[in-house]
Amino acid sequence: MAAVSLPKFNHIDIDTYVTRLDALLTTNLRKIDTLLAKNSNASWESLMQPLEDMEDILEQFWSPFAHLHAVVNSPELRNCYQACLPKLSAYESAIGQNQALYDAINSLDKDALNPTQLKIIEDTLRDFELSGVALPAADKQRFEAIQARLSELSNQYENNVLDASQDFNLHITDAHRLIGLPEHALHTALILAEEKGVSGWVLNLEIPCYLAVITYADDRSLREEIYKAYVTRASDQGPSAGKFDNTSVMEEILALRHEKANLLGFANYAELSLATKMADSTDQVVQFLSDLSERGYPQAALEFNHLQAFAQEKYGINELAPWDMSYMSEKKMQTRYAISQEELRPFFPLPRVMSGLFTIINKLYGMTMEEVKGVEVWHPDVTCYCVKDSENNIRGYIYADLFARQNKRGGAWMDSCRTRRKLSDDSIQLPIATLTCNFAKAAANKPPTLSHDEVLTLFHEFGHCFHHVLTQVDYMSASGIHGVEWDAVELPSQFFENWCWEKEAIQLLTAHVESGEPLPEDLFNKLLAAKNFQSAMIMMRQLEFSLFDFRIHREYQKQIPALIPTILADVRSKTAVVPIAPYNRFQHSFSHIFAGGYAAGYYSYKWAEVLSSDAFSRFEEEGVLNPKTERSILNELH
User: Fold this and answer.
1) H or E segment and range at residue 429
2) CA-based Rg of the chain, rounded to a whole angstrom?
3) Computed from CA positions of residues 521, 522, 527, 529, in that sequence, does the dihedral angle turn out positive or negative?
4) Could you give the count of Cα atoms lying within 13 Å of 23 in the half-sphere of its Cβ?
5) C-beta separation of 250 from 589 below 8 A
6) How many DSSP H helices and E strands does the chain contain?
7) Which of 128, 235, 306, 418 could form a disulfide with 432 if both were Cys (CB 3.0 to 4.6 A apart)?
């Protein structure tokens, strides 16, 4: 096994990084020219192996830096990152449009390749075609310019969302306005006020704070104020109106994606997106989503009507506003099931959750998680774990960064920092994954605790990590999360969420912060009973996002003014049962599709949910902690 060296996150020289990246990219392109000159009879070993070597070196150089840009953003990192993007884009175009390289790969003797190598060759040739390798010279040049501009725009979009989120702070001096907020939110607001040198409390738009206010604050005007700030981020509305506006950024992204698709012979970007996915056609995706919508809408409307009646009867609210939805839903759930996320939180102290998670991983996968001390991390909150198998062999590493903070991108995600592969000396390069969440930090003198929803998020992201780390594929292009159709990539993550609802697993995950007792039987039964509370409303919200995403990419036409809000309004007319504020600009911070990898692919969450349900049905039949079942699925999916 190869000697282990972990990333030096604290020793990335920003001042020289762009120059060193430029040199690396130039060297790689020269190596490719040399390979082509020498490879009249190319083989996997003489052509593909060196190409994977180059890709591996680039990933290990770029990934740690790109990750820092997302989790400890600063002006210096941002400027450096921005300077790197056009160089990377030009490099990718130079490779993807290299006809000689395409021909050399296409000439490989397919009979001499194993099934994994054949799959990689098939995907690689497809990716060449989707990079414009067959285009005329002028179109190649335009394609490269589009790619470079799209890279720049996506980064600008994400920066605007982060800057708009951090631009908002609400100083509170009247304690009565904070009645209802959980202890962790009050503590964080108090600390933030101290850091800013003001009395009282400071609220912001980090997810733990926003969710606490919108769900628990009794002060309706406070809920409205924070709601408006959140749903107008990076737009022409709200407290930062026009300051970080993503309107023109989105419009240009859509136009360039459409032009790119047309250059490649596709009618629209949705068609191009499906070229690398499981779904067969855009009609199939729209039908899949529309069918779910038609089935779910009546139940969602009924759920909303019941909530409206509850709000009127119990709280005198005759017409629910958007900022009432989470608050009233929580009150109704408490009334109906005598349970709330905050009531559950003390039972999920983070140390116990991690311990239970690792026990479940051991029971299912036969893997042991061990904290690695003395390694470089980008923040004191970050922990590095090594994953060991039953024979005490290290299978890979996972860096976990769990808490919200300033200058950190919102949301939760996993990414590859290094990919498993067999090296030329037959040693195995160990994979590294990064796991990022935005949970609330601990209240004073207490361990951090998670809501059950946050436990689900943690399991989801660990599912992604183990997909990457436990792979047994020897080739980088098909190892871990690489080479997987995007509408299947959510399968392992959604699959792993299932254990958060199982009694055997819950007993391992819970220990009350004061008494140490696991979640009582009655609370578990209430949790289970409330599992599908307002599930139709939740599903319709996801379908709204999915249909909006797919339709703006499928139906884009340059001459249609205000296409984005027009399609969004039409989608909502068919999917939304909840009130929509006229200033709502959710699309301006929908980073999944404008700055992430989900463009014309957000539907994959619902698509993979169906797949994960099928996979989990085996455990429901054979036992949820059945190692034999898990090992068989692990071997089938690696």
Assistant:
1) strand 428-429
2) 25
3) positive
4) 6
5) no
6) 24, 9
7) 418
Contact 313, 204 (CB under 8 A): no
Query: Residue 151's pLDDT band (boundaries 50, 70, 90)?
Result: very high
**How far apart are alpha carbons 194 and 113 in whole angstroms?**
63
Q: Band of the pLDDT at 3, cuts 50, 70, 90?
A: very low
The tokens for 470 are 């436990």
Question: Could you give the CA distance from residue 71 to residue 381 in angstroms, rounded to a whole number?
Answer: 12
> Which amino acid would we find at residue 443?
A
CA pair distance 607, 609, nearest whole angstrom: 5
The structure tokens 């007993």 sit at: 507
Alpha carbons 230 and 223: distance in angstroms, whole number: 11
Q: Which of 461, 490, 544, 630 is labelled catalytic?
A: 461
What's the one-letter identity of residue 492? P
187 with 443: CB under 8 angstroms?
yes
pLDDT digits (tens, 9 = 90+) for 6-21: 999 999 999 999 999 9
CA atoms of 226 and 169, how far apart (whole Å): 9
Please report which residue ranges of 220-278 form alpha helices under DSSP H.
220-231, 247-263, 269-274
Q: What is the pLDDT of residues 495-531, one digit of tens each?
A: 899 999 999 999 999 999 999 999 999 999 999 999 9
- Nearest by Cα to 602 from 583, 580, 586, 584: 586
For residues 69 and 6, the answer to whether their CB atoms sit within 8 Å is no
Query: Residue 615: which pLDDT band, with cuts at 50, 70 and 90?
Result: confident
What tokens does 629 get? 């079942």
**CA–CA dist 152, 161 (Å, integer):** 15
Q: How big is the chain, counted in residues? A: 638
Token pair of 448 as six digits: 């951090």
**Per-residue pLDDT reduced to its tens digit, 363-413:** 988 999 999 999 999 999 999 999 999 999 999 999 999 999 999 999 999
Per-residue DSSP letters for 134-199?
A: TS-HHHHHHHHHHHHHHHHHHHHHHHHHHHHHHH-EEEE--GGGGTT--HHHHHHHHHHHHHHT-S
Does residue 242 sit in helix, strand or coil?
A: coil
The helix/strand/coil state of 434 is strand
- Measured from the Cβ of residue 524, the count of other Cβ atoms closer than 10 Å reads 20
Cα–Cα distance for residue pair 607/637, rounded to 1 Å: 17
Whether the Cβ atoms of residue 165 and residue 233 lie closer than 8 Å to each other: yes
